[in-house]
Write a structure and sequence with these properties.
Elements lengths: L1 H12 L15 E6 L4 H14 L8 E5 H14 L5 E3 L7 H15 L4 E3 L20 E5 L1 E2 L10 H4 L4 E2 L2 H13 L4 E5 L12 H9 L7 E5 L8 H9 L6 E3 L7 H6 L6 H14 L4 E8 L6 H14 L3 E6 L17 H25 L4 E9 L5 E5 L5 E5 L3 H7 L3 E9 L3 E6 L1 H10 L5
Parallel strand pairs: 1-2, 2-3, 3-4, 5-8, 8-9, 10-11, 11-12, 15-17
Antiparallel strand pairs: 6-7, 13-14, 13-16, 14-15, 16-17
Helix pairs in contact: 7-8, 8-10, 11-12
Bound molecules: 5'-deoxyadenosine and iron/sulfur cluster (SF4).
Length: 443
Amino acid sequence: MNVYDSARMADVMAPVGYVATDVADDADLVILNTCHIREKAAEKVYSELGRLRPKKEDGTMIAVAGCVAQAEGDEILRRAPYVDLVVGPQSYHRLPKLVADATAENKSSGRSRVVDTDFPAESKFDFMPAVQSSGPSAFLTIQEGCDKFCAFCVVPYTRGGEFSRPVEAVLTEADQLVGNGATEITLLGQNVNAYHGDDQGLAGLIRKLANIEGLERIRYTTSHPRDMNLDLIAVHGEIPELMPYLHLPIQSGSDAILARMNRKHGADDYLKIIDALRVARPDIALSSDFIVGHPGESDADFEATMALIKKVEYAQAYSFKYSKRPGTPASDMDDQIPEDVKSERLAALQNLLNQQQITFNEQTVGSSIPVLFERRGKLPNQIVGRSPYMQAVHVSCVDAAAADRYLGKIMPVRITGAFANSLAGNLDDEVVAETTKMEPARA
Ligand code: 5AD
Ligand code: SF4
């Protein structure tokens, strides 16, 4: 979501003359877009700010955006007084004005401290310009915020309550993205499957999006098991554009810990959803998030998580040590787990997940799978894309012209090698023959 937000901030700043650059040294304005989900992410902001500080001498303006800005606005100005501007995630549409205010303050007093961490009554989405550009695979935020209040999580406090963009606005933006060259759209939301901007929820939106010509792949992330309704499960069997891959976090496989986490469902409820998804779409692959060492997690609770992972067999998953977040109920629970126990459990869990990921990747060797090519690779004439299951796939083309031709396209690829985090393959024989025909110089 921060990738999407950063792109939209660039769009908002374009009319007032700002152009995005990848090189911080070139920038007149540096915006750190930050994450507050775990302590490590939040602390990184301060070390990054320290590194940026010398740039102030050249007159560079430094801004902090995102959830750390929202949660720690005043703390940021205290710890890094050279920051010019702090802007929360709901105020990005106001950036041009905020930057102008900060510039004016700097001129008049040599120092600015502009802070906007409101939850404005107006929706920022109504004030943002049309999307300016898009790669083959685009993000589209359709929902923000969360009302679930999991005991460990800061999101309901930093991003606020649940909000869904109206279906018309989403369809308009999807049209713009496809017009700009997107073939794949990933719908985003902290609780994306709670989307209610369409009468039929996320299922209804996906059905409508599937009618957009040129949009060949649809994904959505991140979902909560409680909002995985029957209609949404049915859509997985019904809409071929909806990719057979779902990120559905469970966090823990222990009912006792799920209750402590306030997840409002048990491990069995989750397994039933997975079964139903596999009936609807037999080739669906699954991903999840796991937290180890949540307050109260016993050895037996942890083993229940390991057992659930073995049952589901994930294609991929993210896992984290529980991190205390200020203001959340779990941070005040008295049975906190020692750091070394968390580390041990995380290592065991990641070992299992890595094995499953390698097994999943190895299963694709020898088969032909459609790959959407998104960018050039590190090697000459190499291109990199994604399989329907989100695996990165590396392919070498006959020459640079072929590489350029395939970018942005979905092509069948024969998989020849599987690694922990990627696949290698060749464009299918037929395609290679086509290419050779089209390039007489090589015939
Ligand atoms: N500690 C560790 N992991 C967390 N997550 C959310 N809050 C915490 C926390 N306090 C993880 C969850 C969530 C993912 C985005 O981040 O697994 O699904
Ligand atoms: Fe956080 Fe997700 Fe729980 Fe909402 S549903 S509180 S975003 S973990």
